[in-house]
User: Fold this.
Amino acid sequence: MDAIVGLVIAVIVVVLMFVFVVKTVRIVPQARARNVERFGRYRKTLEPGMNFIIPFVDRVKPLIDLREQVVAFKGQPVITEDNLVVLIDTVLFFQVTDPRAADYEIVNYIQAIEQLTATMLRSVIGSMDLEQTLTSRDRINNMLRGVLDEASGKWGIRVTRVEIKAIDPPKSVVDAMEKQMRAEREKRAAILTAEGVRQSKILTAEGEKQSNILRAEGDKQSQILRAEGQSQAIGTVFQAVHHNDADPKVLAYQYLQTLPQLAQAEGNTFWVIPSEVTTALKTLSTAFGSDAAGQTAAPPAGPGRPAQVTGAVPAALPADAAGQPSLTADGDPARAEDAAAEGAAAEERAAGDAAVEERAAEERAHTRDELAQVEQEVAAVERQVAEAERLGPR
Assistant:
């Protein structure tokens, strides 16, 4: 019996000693702190590691986290300067630097920081309109961090960072902002399209300009080469004619070959044979001995008078009182009426010949003008060729 009592007493003593050791030794994790009160008064702050206290005399308060903490505050209604209510979500980063002040200077420092943040947001946002609020987040963050850090310093808390997580304007304002953004984007798109069209037109104009310049240069070079060729051809012909002493018969033959080309021109309804044709015919007839018996060549026409070539006349015709010959089938003198008719016909023919001569004179004058113009153009071409030859070596 005594042995049992002794064993129970020993067990009780061991348990009491274990409880005493457990109450005496306190282990604090790293980056944590615990405040100790002795008889209800602050005694000390336990550091990380093993700490000893007096059991049943010292009271150890709960752990205080010394690491940086993050707290998010949602839905803080704030009124801007232009009387719009916006909801602002904030994120707060803070760290406890003084466990004693955080435990004894404030009851709930997280709730205190939340309320202080809401108050400062109303103060800061109230002095800005919606546009400034949406575009001045860095400014708002810096102002909040400065004010919160100063206010929470006496609580043993250091605010390291404040971030505006979201700003939610009213639905009507969001719709208006979307319309404005869409209009701005359409405006920029129209401006870019106009710039593209403008640049395209500029490039097209530049290309056409360069093309016209190159085409003009090609035309210029072509005209220069053509003028040089014509000049050389004219010089060759001129030298051949003058140095070889061409026979007039050959020139007359060439002149007659040119006549069909005059008749082939479009729009020619009246063709006057110049008097030089008779001269050419006479020259050719003389050259080939074509003076046949019974045929007479018409006398060469005078200046400005077309040539007239007739056939053989059987005999001399007697003339009437008007000086015109009278022709009858049997050779007898014709009646006076026939003679008068013949005279009138002769006068009409004379009038027609005069008109033909006048037209021929006009045609020759026009031809002379054209020849003068051609000579001027040839002179201009020769000057261009000379200028091109002068500028060629450069």
